[in-house]
Automatic annotation (TrEMBL):
Enzyme nomenclature, EC number: 2.4.1.129
Gene Ontology MF terms in the entry: carboxypeptidase activity; glycosyltransferase activity; penicillin binding
Full protein name: Cell division protein FtsI
Main location: membrane
Keyword Transferase: yes
Taxonomic classification: Bacteria, Pseudomonadati, Campylobacterota, Desulfurellia, Desulfurellales
Domain (Penicillin-binding protein transpeptidase): residue spans on this chain: 215-512
SUPFAM superfamilies in the record: beta-lactamase/transpeptidase-like (SSF56601), Penicillin binding protein dimerisation domain (SSF56519)
Gene Ontology cellular-component annotations: plasma membrane
Compartment(s) where it occurs, according to its Swiss-Prot or TrEMBL record: Membrane
GO biological process: cell division; cell wall organization
Lineage top rank: taxon: Bacteria
Residue ranges constituting the Penicillin-binding protein dimerisation domain according to the UniProt record: 25-169
Length: 530
């Protein structure tokens, strides 16, 4: 909208001179968290312009103080601009600093005016930037939810001539429509705490990157982030590696957190009952011309302790007994090798070796999460299936979309049963054992039952084979394991010093679970660590 100096005579004369053709932009829709905190909104800004012809003909006062402000603010000589463009009707000078807008309005000389535009603003900046993304100067969504839901969020843009009446009112033949608003499953309080914990881990472990996700069993994402992050109010200052949504598009070899597929497929297919004992070769096993190693030099282990103590050797033996047909049936059922359909742009499919040409050694290593590329969102989706009773669900972030008090869209849960309830209960028992006495003891939460799985994966080297110094440490927890309300994932990439998932990721999951318990007033269970 156009605002001009507050003089009746000036407005009458100005209306005769010009009916400006201006861009009218409807406001972009807001984005809210689950508690109606505003995460993204349009805030007004004002563009200053001058009409040199009108100024020279009608302005008879000294405007030096105003000129001094304009000159210093925009680094121009406004008097010189006017003198050199005497016949022009419109010259844009730039956008007024919001803190000065009241003074500018009160001191606006004849021949100067303001056009009201909108600028996108993100109050929580770094905390939730990768999910929200940002929109560009043309108001089009370029990343994150701003891009994915641009058709809903975008306000209408129209060009029209605006008639200024003798009394200074603006007459529009048509007003642009505003955009719709998104209401997310994200809880900004939880998101903020997750962001803080990930930053602390990045600093403490001198890591390359840290990813975290907290989701409900139905697939609703409560918080999701990766660090280093960026301020989406100043997105042009950052490299794209900070901007991209790493939890959904950064692929990595997951290590032993992938054993959720190995244990579930073995039990659900009845290849194993869960009562078997396996020989773990005292920590070294030569197979198919290669050596598979365990951290611990275990001999015989019961089925559940194979996973509690995270034996790669016995996990490989389990998968080999299943054979690739059964293993791949469940790998695909858990959603690996394809998108989860989360409502964000740029999701990766993942990398799964060709089934037809798969060699026995490939199957053996895949059983403990090596030789497969996954995203963090794919991993958490697999654990959601155990948390919700055996159903594959699609993770989602937008709960509903509204406009003018009406709901335009509401998320509808879709789920498919992939493992039987009895399998779920056995897997939950194993995941509980991991935390009680296995590799995940650092994920214990006082007064609550936690279940989960650690993972420590070597990083593939660009020279071939695997690096001897670069690792990825993960922990995925189901909390509380007896009555699941959340699945929590933390993955630390290339930590320095200690690199085991049970050391670098499990303690963070414990802190997040403690916060969730306090925030949501989750009751503690019986027979838990006190």
């Amino acid at each position: 909208m156009v605002q001009i100096a507050d003089s009746k005579n000036y407005k009458q004369e100005y209306a005769k001179f010009i009916e400006p053709l201006i861009d009218l932009q409807g406001k972009r829709g807001n984005i809210y968290d689950c508690n109606n905190k505003t995460l993204a909104l349009d805030v007004p800004n004002f563009q200053l312009f001058v009409d040199p012809k009108f100024y020279l003909e009608y302005n008879k006062t000294d405007n030096q103080s105003f000129f001094n402000y304009v000159n210093s603010h925009f680094y121009v000589n406004v008097k010189e601009i006017i003198e050199k463009n005497k016949s022009l009707r419109y010259i844009s000078l730039g956008t007024i600093d919001p803190k000065n807008i009241v003074w500018v309005k009160n001191n606006l000389p004849k021949g100067f005016g303001l056009i009201k535009n909108y600028k996108r603003f993100y109050p929580y900046a770094n905390n939730v930037s990768q999910i929200l993304g940002f929109s560009g100067k043309n108001k089009q969504g370029l990343e994150g939810l701003e891009k994915e839901y641009d058709l809903y969020l975008a306000g209408q843009s129209i060009k029209q001539r605006v008639n200024i009446t003798p009394y200074g009112n603006l007459e529009f033949s048509k007003k642009p429509l505003n955009g719709a608003s998104l209401h997310l499953t994200i809880n900004e309080d939880i998101q903020n705490y997750l962001h803080f914990q990930l930053k602390e881990a990045l600093k403490e472990r001198k890591a390359k990157m840290v990813i975290g996700i907290i989701a409900r069993p139905d697939g609703a994402i409560v918080a999701m982030d990766s660090v280093p992050s960026y301020d989406n109010n100043k997105f042009s200052n950052y490299d794209y590696t900070h901007i991209r949504i790493n939890p959904i598009n950064y692929l990595f070899e997951p290590g032993s957190v992938f054993k959720i597929v190995t244990m579930s497929s073995a039990l659900d297919s009845h290849t194993f009952s869960g009562n078997e004992t396996l020989f773990c070769e005292n920590g070294k096993w030569k197979f198919s011309g290669h050596t598979i190693s365990d951290v611990e030099k275990n001999g015989d282990l019961p089925f559940d302790k194979v996973f509690a103590y995270s034996s790669n050797i016995c996990s490989a033996k389990i998968a080999l007994k299943e054979d690739k047909e059964i293993f791949y049936k469940y790998l695909w059922a858990f959603g690996f090798g394809k998108k989860t359909h989360i409502d964000l742009p740029g999701e990766a499919d993942g990398l799964v070796k060709d089934y037809v040409n798969l060699k026995p050694f490939d199957l053996a290593t895949m059983a403990f999460g090596q030789g497969i590329g996954v995203s963090a969102i794919q991993i958490i989706r697999a654990y959601l299936a155990i948390a919700n009773g055996g159903y594959l669900v699609d993770p989602y972030i937008v709960d509903y979309i509204s406009k003018d008090g009406k709901i335009l869209y509401k998320h509808k849960e879709t789920k498919k049963q992939i493992v039987q309830p009895q399998t779920v209960e056995k897997v939950k028992q194993i995941l509980t054992l991991v935390v009680e006495e296995g590799t995940g003891t650092n994920a214990q939460v006082k007064y609550y039952a936690m279940g989960g799985k650690t993972g420590t994966a070597q990083v593939a080297s660009h020279k071939g084979g695997y690096s001897l110094s670069d690792y990825t440490g993960s922990f995925v927890g189901i909390f509380p394991i007896d009555k699941p309300q959340f699945v929590i994932l933390v993955t630390v990439f290339d930590p320095k010093g200690v690199n085991y998932g049970g050391e670098v990721a499990a303690p963070i999951v414990a802190k997040l679970a403690s916060m969730l318990a306090a925030y949501y007033k989750i009751e503690g269970g019986e027979n838990v660590i006190r």
